Hints:
Layout: H1 2-23, E1 26-27, E2 32-36, H2 37-45, E3 50-54, E4 58-70, E5 75-86, E6 93-106, E7 111-123, H3 132-147, E8 151-154, E9 161-162, E10 165-174, E11 178-185
Antiparallel strand pairs: 1-2, 2-11, 3-4, 4-5, 5-6, 6-7, 7-8, 9-10, 10-11
Amino acid sequence: MKRRKWMGMLLAVAAMGVATTALGGYNVWSNEYTLSQQQLQTAIESKFPARLRYAEVFTVDIRHPRLALNPTENRVVTIVSVSVQSQLPLVPLNGTIKLSSALKYDSQARAIRLDNPTVDAIDFGELAAPYAQQLNEIGAIVAQRVLKDYPIYTFKPEQLRLNGKLFEPGAITVQADGIAVEVNAS
C-alpha cells in the first residue's frame, strides 16, 4: 500500500513537472523556471512604441521590437524599427537598431531585468552615413532609456514558495528557445 501511494505521488509530481515545462514554469526535475521566447517577446512588446527626444532637435520613434536569443553570449537581442525626425531641414531617417542585453535578477522586485544593454548594430542605409555619430548616440540613448533595467518577467510570491520553503532565483541562462532561471532554496 505504501509503495502504491508513493508511486502515485511520484507520477503526479512528474506530470506536474512535464506540464509546467511545456507551458513555461517551474520544472521539478531541473530546479529551473523556464520562460519561452514567446513569453519574452510579449513582455518586450509591452514597452513599445516609445518616443524619445535627443538634443532637443531629434524626435526618435521606436517600434516593432523583434526578440532573438543569443545562447552563445548569454544575451537577449532586441531589434527595433527606428524613425528619426528633425527640426532641421533633414530627410526623416528610417532604419533598425540591434541591441543586446544580459539578464539579472532583482530580488526586491522579484523581477528578471534586462541588464547592460549595448548597441550591436545600426542600419539606416547609405543616406544616413553623414549622421553616423548622431545615430550611434541615439542608439546608446535607446539602449539606456528604453531597455536598461526593463523587467521582462516578475515572479509572483507563490511561484517562489513550495511546501513552506522559499526559493531564490540564481543563474539565468539564455537558451535557443527561451531562458532558464535556476531556483535554489533560501
